[in-house]
Amino acid sequence: MRFAASLLVAAMLTAACTTTVDTSPPPTTVGNDSSPSTQPDTISGATISLAMLEPEALSAHQVISAHAVELAQLIHTGLTRRGPDGQAIPGLAESWSSDNAITWTFNLKAGLVFSDGTPITAETFAVSWQRLAEQDTRARAAYLGVEAGISNWEEAVAGVEGAIIGIQILDELSFQVQLDRSFPWLPELVAHPAFAPVSPAELASPTSTGPIGAGDFRIEGTYEPGVGVTLVRTNPTGEAGEIGRFEVLFVADEAALVSAVESGTADVAVVGDAVVPAAVSGAVVASNEVLYLGFPTSRGPLSEPEPRRQMSLTIDRDAIAATLDDRQTPSVQFAPSHSVNGLAVRCQWCRFDPEEASAYAEANELEPPEDPISLHIVGGSLAEPWAQRIAADWQTQTGWTVNIVRHDNLQRLVGFLQSGVPDGPFILPWTGDHPGAEAWIEPLFDRAGADDFIRYGNDTLIEHFRIISSTRAGGSSRVQAMNDLGTTLNGALAFLPLSVLNRTVVESGNVIVGVEGGVTRVDLTNLTAAP
Q1: Is 259 helix (H, G, I), strand (E, B) or coil?
Q2: Does domain 284-503 have CATH number 3.10.105.10?
Q3: For FRET with 486, which of 158, 182, 225, 440 sits at 20 to 30 Å CA-CA?
Q4: Which residue ranges make up each domain of the chain?
């Protein structure tokens, strides 16, 4: 489970431990055909003007938002790419393998170079990843290596002197990555631009605004923050439909994205958020992002499951969601079934029944604490209406007094939770890749995980996840493990699903909608133009 601002650590259920792949994703075309479709349409011409929100950076180590990643993927290619189904396909790596999902070997393609002609070798990756991890780099995406469990990565991020991350160079085109724990989804994770090789020239001048990458496109002229950037294809093939140039225009907000297309300033715009302006027609579907209410299990009046069950029975999800727009759908699934191949993990205590809550409290001799409890959220976020209603209902129906504590942004709330001293429950948007429930839930129960906000390690749960994610486990074994997982989660009730956040799929026009944190994120490398 991961908070939404982190983009996404790719956790794919079906990733095999020994893999050699050489397939490529089909292209996607974009354009202005008005016929209904869940796929973008066609634009004529090999030069495409593209409107996007201003990225925080284009450097591989510094991109973190969805739209920045989308743009950076044109400039930076890593060991792998993400295919249409979200699984890893070859990027700069020719193949990769692992017998235990702990020690991984990557073999590079021969003759790789940066756009300026500098050769790319195994040492290039070792140096780039080491720099990504080091505290002095202050890389926005450095946390990804921690989540993957790359050996000594966390120490390097913390600034421990002499901390060398777990990469061993085997030869000029091969290297091994050593993890501290099993992580079958490493090939998907390293598709993130953060793990792309960074040129020696950029490492020598980290403040450069014109990164040199090994992607399909390179920067032409000057990258102008606040204005735009022009990208040209590094090795054009002349194939029909190939886009040779992106003229990227940076705009201030999503309304400006749509306006840019409608006015003809841009051929196409990319909206990286789940909200689409009303002028754009689209269908609302469930995303891979869920709003959760989490409880710290190591301290405070809600550290035991009994009061958590009482409180859960007083949350009226339908009533709260009815006051919101169509951005959310109430959820009672620990992991949404539409994204776990139908293997539902239902929260049995996530029903609204105040009378049962009162009877349960009486039977278990539960009394409200004398002092108020804190409910931590990001102020003004989607959690705000949930927090207000939950606090009011807990007060009137259980006698618990709740103070809502608003944090300035998601990073500050996460930092507070990671400190290990949360004094009350919290609401966070987590996101996970399909198709496994463990993509949402498992990190919560990993004692060493950066996302273990509830401090609830459980070896039994980890065993359930091992079976669920195993490529060797039979279908009946996986279903039984999923059932056992549901029983254990309902017994602990360390967190509660509140709602699934929705995304809008544009059915006409030139606005492409990508979802931050999901496999539905726009991949600009696959766009084509009509000949």
Answers
A1: helix
A2: yes
A3: 182
A4: 4-278+507-528, 284-503
